[in-house]
Structure formats: C-alpha cells, structure tokens
C-alpha cells in the first residue's frame, strides 16, 4: 500500500481543477474568471459578477437585464419558512438561522434535476434572491418585528439594506455595499468552498450545498474574523494603545485578528479596496475613531511583522465599513455568505461538469489487534 505524506488541513494539496478564480499570494493578485478584482470592483455590479462566476462569461446587456429581473422577482420567501424562522430563539446567531433556512429551501424547491439547465438556473436565481431576504428577516424577527417585504423598485444591494433598516439606503452606501459583495463573492478553494464541493460531489441538491458551506463559513477561523476585528478595535480603544497591544500579542504569540492569510504574503488586494471604501463612507457620514486605530495597527504590524508576510486581509476593514452602515456585528458573517453564495454556486456548477465523489484517505495512528473486554471486567 502506498504511504502518502500527511498534510494537516490539506495545506498545499490541490483538491480540484477550477477556472472560477485565481490567486497569486506573492503578488497580491485576485482574479475572477481572469478579470482582476480591482477592475470588477470599479466597473461591475454584484449580480453581473455573480453571472460571470457562475456562467464563465460576462453577460450581454440583454442577458444581464433578464438575470436581474429573475432575481428581483424571486426575493420573497415562502410563508412557512418565515413562520419557521419566527420560532428560532432571539439569542441564536444569525449564521445558524441562515444555515437552517437555506437547508429548508430544499424542501420547497429541490428536485435534484442536476442535468437540466433550467433547474440549475432556477436554483441559482432562488438562492441568490432569497438568502439576503432571510438574513434581513431574521434580524427584524429577533427584535420582535415582522420582516420587511422586498422592494421591487430597488436593485440587489439597495434592497437588502432597505429590508434591514426599513428605509431606502443612501445611494453611496448602497454602491459601497455592492462592491463589498463583489469582493467577498469568491476566493478559490477556501474551507467553505471545499465544503460546498464535497457536498456537491454526492449529487445532493444545491440548497444542501449552500447550507453546508454556510455552516463552514460560520467558524471564527473562516468567516467570523471580521466580527472579532471590531471587538479587538474596541478593546484597544485609542491609537496610543496600539503599539503596546501589538507588542504584547507578538510576545505571547497570539493571533492578531484581521492580519495574515494562508495565501497572501502581501496586503490582500481586497483590503486595499475596502480601506478606500471606508474612507469614502467616513468622508460623507462622519469620521470613525476606530478607523484611526486600524490604520495605526496596519503601520505597526507592517513594521513588526511585515518581513514575515503578515499584512491586513479582507476581514480587517470590512467590519468597519459595515459598522458605519449601522449593521450589527453578528450580521457581518451572514453578509459574507450573501456574497459567497455566488462563488459556491460557481463551484457547484463546475463540480457537476466532471463529478467524482470526494473520498480522501487517512493516516491511521491508532492501535492494532486490541482485545474486547467484557463489560463486567471494565
């Protein structure tokens, strides 16, 4: 029997061939279907980017309008799902509510007709359309309020902010939020995407695929880091406390939230874009002292740890942007999920094209030929 080298966390081991996205961590490059993330953030919209990721091409004007129309008029959720969500505990985390709700969609829409392009497109539209509605609905329900119905006159991002805050959002805020969704839409074979592909390889329905990915994203080592960044900034409190805090973390060898990445050894290009978006928000809606703390942290960490390739990642500035929009901290990761649904569906569709169920092996480190001990002798 061939003995394979064990790699904890499968680090560096290719799990699939994919044309969905590309990362060069040494140069700070991120591409979706070959297009640089900076270009998409400046010129595209989230739904156009989602179309690119899922169907491997930019849509024509007519294709995009049709796609946007389909998503716009599938935003409402079944009343039974809404009633189910009302029974969730108010203290529950929104990611847990989202995972349960996404899985429940499969009860209503799953036929597992995976060779039918009409079914595939319908599932894509249904998930992209309803996931934001469920996130916003739970936020209002846990405060004892009825959810706000989607506004068919608003585009994708503006409608989510409308459902969340019960008022039409500022145009700049909606545009910045849309760019945030683009930045979080896809990032190669990360943990939740791997989870999605493993689940997809069993040929289950796409609602189960997304639910499994949501569960994976909910962990603090993956999608929950931006929540912890805000907690860290609040704990530091002032700019003058930054250097002692960083030096203490280095001495104790503890993780500095929002810094470092398994792939990037330079500053995450998404962090650079988010930093600029934060500045735009603060210029219009007022300064945030935690942004000053964040920028000082970036300077000190680069001074102390830049030689080790530790720089801000996407989670470092995204929380500050959402916080300025008045979004509760525990909704940061569900918003990450709203965006990443596009990437998960792109990988789901790609997995179906040449599917083979995932069946990795293991390195056994237990005992052999152990004897059974009768219960009366234990």
Features:
single chain; 378 residues; mainly alpha; 16 helices; globular
Task: Note down, in words, how this protein is organized.
Helices cover 57% and strands 3% of the residues. With 378 residues, it is mainly α. Strands 1-2-3 form a 3-stranded antiparallel β-sheet. Helix 2 runs parallel beside helix 16, helix 9 packs antiparallel against helix 10 and helix 9 crosses helix 16. The protein is globular and about 65 Å long. The two termini are 36 Å apart. The relative contact order is 0.14.
* Rg (C-alpha, Å): 22 Å
Q: Report the mean per-residue pLDDT as an integer.
A: 94
Distance between the termini: 36 Å
Report the biggest beta sheet as strand number plus sense, adding barrel if it closes. Answer: 3 strands, antiparallel
- Binned strand content: under 5%
Q: Could you state the order of secondary-structure elements as H and E?
A: EEEHHHHHHHHHHHHHHHH
Helical content stands at 55-70%
Strand order of the largest sheet: 1-2-3
Low-confidence stretches: none
Number of helices: 16
Q: Quick one: overall form? A: globular
Tally of DSSP β-strands: 3
Instruction: Provide the structure class.
Output: mainly alpha
Oligomer: single chain
């Amino acid at each position: 029997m061939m003995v394979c080298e064990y790699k904890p966390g499968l680090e560096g081991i290719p799990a699939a061939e994919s044309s969905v996205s590309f990362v060069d961590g040494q140069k700070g490059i991120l591409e979706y279907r070959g297009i640089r993330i900076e270009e998409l953030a400046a010129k595209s919209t989230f739904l156009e980017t989602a179309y690119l990721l899922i169907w491997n091409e930019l849509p024509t004007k007519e294709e995009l309008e049709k796609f946007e129309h389909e998503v716009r008029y599938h935003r409402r959720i079944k009343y039974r799902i809404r009633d189910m969500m009302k029974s969730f505990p108010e203290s529950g985390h929104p990611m847990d509510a989202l995972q349960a709700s996404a899985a429940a969609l499969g009860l209503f829409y799953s036929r597992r007709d995976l060779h039918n392009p009409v079914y595939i497109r319908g599932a894509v539209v249904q998930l992209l359309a309803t996931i934001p509605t469920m996130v916003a609905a739970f936020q209002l329900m846990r405060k004892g309020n009825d959810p706000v119905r989607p506004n068919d006159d608003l585009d994708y991002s503006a409608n989510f902010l409308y459902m969340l805050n019960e008022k039409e959002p500022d145009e700049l805020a909606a545009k910045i939020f849309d760019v945030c969704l683009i930045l979080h839409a896809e990032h190669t074979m990360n943990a939740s995407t791997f989870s999605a592909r493993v689940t997809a390889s069993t040929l289950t329905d796409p609602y189960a695929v997304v639910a499994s990915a949501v569960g994976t994203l909910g962990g603090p080592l993956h999608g929950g880091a931006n929540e912890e960044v805000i907690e860290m900034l609040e704990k530091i409190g002032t700019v003058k406390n930054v250097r002692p805090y960083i030096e203490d973390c280095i001495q104790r060898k503890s993780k500095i939230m929002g810094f470092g990445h398994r792939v990037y050894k330079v500053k995450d290009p998404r962090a650079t874009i988010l930093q600029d978006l934060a500045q735009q928000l603060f210029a219009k809606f007022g300064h945030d002292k935690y942004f000053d703390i964040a920028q000082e942290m970036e300077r000190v960490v680069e001074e102390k740890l830049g030689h080790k390739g530790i720089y801000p990642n996407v989670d470092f500035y995204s929380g500050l942007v959402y916080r300025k929009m008045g979004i509760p901290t525990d909704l940061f990761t569900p918003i990450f999920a709203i965006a990443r649904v596009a990437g998960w569906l792109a990988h789901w569709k790609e997995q179906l094209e040449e599917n083979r169920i995932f069946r990795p092996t293991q390195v056994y480190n237990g005992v052999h030929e152990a004897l059974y001990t009768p219960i009366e002798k234990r």
